[in-house]
Amino acid sequence: MEEYVYIDGKKYRRGYTTGSCATGASKAAVYMLITKNRINTINIDTPKGIPLLLKVDNINISDTFVECSIKKDGGDDIDATHTMDIYARAEIVAKNDKNKGYLTLKDIDSLSTNSECKSELYKFIRVYGGTGIGVVTKKGLSVDVGKPAINPTPLKMINHEIRKLIGDNFESILGNDKVLKITIFAPQGETVAKKTFNPRLGIVGGISIIGTTGIVEPMSDDGWKKSLSIELQMKKEQGLDKIILVPGNHGEQFIREKLNLDIKYVVRVSNFIGYMIKEAQRIGYKKILMAGHIGKFIKVSAGIFNTHSKVADARSEILVANLALMGARYEFLNKINQCVTTEEAVELINNSEYREVYNILSK
């Protein structure tokens, strides 16, 4: 894929999602199952409007099924799933299959607006999660508990591309009382999933098949923020009406060891403090407690709600300004300004008459 974007004057290559991989592998497997012709590439459309030509690997054609894979390419936004092989297995099975752990478009809320549902093709396509694909165990996600972690957009994409192959004459192709069984699997999935948000989201046993556009945008925080927001939603679904927001390990450890509060209320927000406060408000939390390193939260006191250093790093300036308003001497302000870390500045403040600055900053 040779799609690029320019960010801050630098050129970055786009990639494609696990959802696009699963879609491409599914379409290729179905095509080879029906035609018995081997192919090396497959075309798919994406919700982003960018068409993809994907290389088909690991082809296995038998009399009763076809397996193949697409290699995940994150472009210049490399994540844990980059270079993974995402497989699909296509086979025609009896409609009365007793295994109910599959997804159809009927599992998606937006049925009435989906053209595939109007064609009723969705009744004949069942998508399963195989080895390395996680299973949802907690409420609050876009997939029901007990179902494979294959999100709505990839599910729609798979159905859309298969409909393009089969058209509306699916019964004549599949046969009476038959359905098309698609199994998505990823041999490395269980290992790779440990490096993702899945364990915190209650998705066990593997990765998720995700992607709302089919395309990975380099240097984008959108996917990360969405995962954090999902965790907030899940905890609300579990009956919590208050939440503790922490940037990372330091805040979580403080909550557990110093405040002795239940860790079930904790959600890590990384640098997206402002975004997560707004999300908590939108979702309906009544109380929010925030805890973390002063180096992060001193920025929030000055209205900097994305605390990444590339966005803003005004820690010394914020301390100096507030201390100056308290009437601190020039010599003391100069020492604070020369501190390399906030820990160093805190030590100076703790040994001074200006400890009230902490209360001022926290208001």
Detailed description of the structure:
The chain has 363 residues and is of the alpha+beta class. It folds into two domains: 213 residues, 2-Layer Sandwich (CbiD-like), CATH 3.30.2110.10; 141 residues, no CATH class. Helix content is 36%, strand content 20%. The protein has a six-stranded mixed β-sheet with strand order 6-7-8-12-10-9, with helices on one face. Strands 16-15-17 form a three-stranded parallel β-sheet, sandwiched between helices. Strand 1 and strand 2 form a beta hairpin. Helix 1 runs parallel beside helix 3. The longest helix is centred in the first third of the chain and has 18 residues. The model has no long low-confidence stretch (mean pLDDT 90).
SSE topology sketch:
Blueprint: E1 4-7, E2 10-13, E3 15-16, H1 18-35, E4 41-44, E5 52-55, E6 57-61, E7 65-71, E8 85-94, E9 102-103, H2 115-118, E10 125-129, E11 135-136, H3 152-166, H4 170-174, E12 178-185, H5 189-193, H6 198-201, E13 203-204, E14 215-216, H7 222-237, E15 242-246, H8 249-257, E16 266-268, H9 273-283, E17 287-290, H10 294-300, H11 315-325, H12 330-338, H13 342-350, H14 357-362
Parallel strand pairs: 10-12, 15-16, 15-17
Antiparallel strand pairs: 1-2, 3-14, 4-5, 6-7, 7-8, 8-12, 9-10, 11-13
Helix pairs in contact: 1-3, 7-9, 11-12
